[in-house]
Amino acid sequence: MAQDVSEYLSQNPRVAAWVEALRCDGETDKHWRHRRDFLLRNAGDLAPAGGAACASTDEAADAESGTRNRQLQQLISFSMAWANHVFLGCRYPQKVMDKILSMAEGIKVTDAPTYTTRDELVAKKG
Question: Can you tell me which residues the record assigns to a coiled coil (predicted)?
């Protein structure tokens, strides 16, 4: 899959530049590779298309831009929550967990650490 993503990005430099700008400082290559996959799978119309961008100043375009910005911020947040869950063992409210896990379907992470939750430890003692 990683080779497919790399090939896609090499053929789509605007998308490659767009997604690379979403990488966090200090994010490891391993974390970024999987989070980038998450972003690309779920970006839909948020990722740039081919061709030149056109600027518009009418109110409808401004409103659409605001909506797109909110959607992008939400996607980035979901991608970070998913990566934190997979690589750091973080947990979130069940509604968020259901959402991020469904968004990540098909992403194979073979070298993720495993964690034991407090609830699992308590259950073992009982």
Answer: none
